[in-house]
């Protein structure tokens, strides 16, 4: 095995590669509860129990781990430490941190990794069993070596810096399904959950990569507030987080009857799912007088397109 680091003139180690990040839901079908957790999570250094690491290398790994940026909840990342050439074999050894922000232990499995240059061009591809990296503790960062053989590299022009190691995810084969926020999961009757799930499965799924809004119910209360329930549909293979949702509502006459912006708190829609949510327009945002809700539509203002 090659050394972990090349000696630098000033004696300080340096992260030679960049970082790539994926959702733990995409990679492992795993998430952890984000309630009460920090939005930015630092990872603690963790060595494989079979690794015999010198004090000098331990210091270097600790120094580099502190240089890594925090992760968001439910993320797995690969942070490039070093890339070293084995001239005799024509291979390269890539050392990277496998980082997890989940608050539970994880184990990786067989996966395909790609080696990319700074322009996202694929330099090499390798399928390997990362289960050998062992149990990765909660919110931790584990250094690991991955060797690309001459046959797994597509070029001999491999840069020593500015590269990136990334997971190559397979397209999801899951059916588009219902995703309920915890508050809805706890308060909604089982019958209503089943009806929603059946409706989501009957509908044509959103186009790949598309996020759209579908109206479910609109009711004006006695105090003048307008309650609009929408189905937010994520056709992407990635989880989506919405922070600001500016909405406009039109009634049966095509008249704009309500308009307003909603600030969402950690509001995510998982990959390939639809999530219902009720938006409440206070009476001050609602047009005075009679509103015909026999038919209506609501849509994000910036798109200016009905869904």
Give short descriptive properties of this protein.
single chain, 307 residues, mainly beta, Immunoglobulin-like, 2 domains, five-stranded mixed β-sheet, four-stranded mixed β-sheet, 4 helices, 15 strands, 38% strand, SLAP_dom, Sec_acc_SLAP, Accessory Sec system S-layer assembly protein
In a nutshell, what does this entry contain?
With 307 residues, the chain is mainly beta. It is built from 4 helices and 15 strands.
Descriptive account of the structure:
With 307 residues, the protein is mostly beta strands. It has two domains: 150 residues, Immunoglobulin-like (Sandwich), CATH 2.60.40; 124 residues, Sandwich (Immunoglobulin-like). It has four helices and 15 strands. A hairpin with a 4-residue loop joins β3 and β4. The longest helix is centred in the N-terminal third of the chain and has 13 residues. The radius of gyration is 25 Å and the shape is elongated.
Proportion in helices = 10-25%
What is the approximate shape?
Answer: elongated
What is the annotated CATH architecture of the largest domain?
Sandwich
Q: How much is the average pLDDT?
A: 88
Number of domains: 2
Class per helix and strand makeup: mainly beta
Radius of gyration: 25 Å
For the record, give the distance between the C-alpha atoms at the N and C termini, rounded to a whole number: 57 Å
Instruction: Give the number of helices.
Output: 4
* CATH class call of the largest domain: Mainly Beta
Major sheet: order of its strands?
A: 1-3-4-7-2
Using the coordinates shown, work out and report the CATH topology of the largest domain: Immunoglobulin-like
Protein name: Accessory Sec system S-layer assembly protein
InterPro entries: Sec_acc_SLAP (IPR030911), SLAP_dom (IPR030910)
Organism: Salibacterium qingdaonense
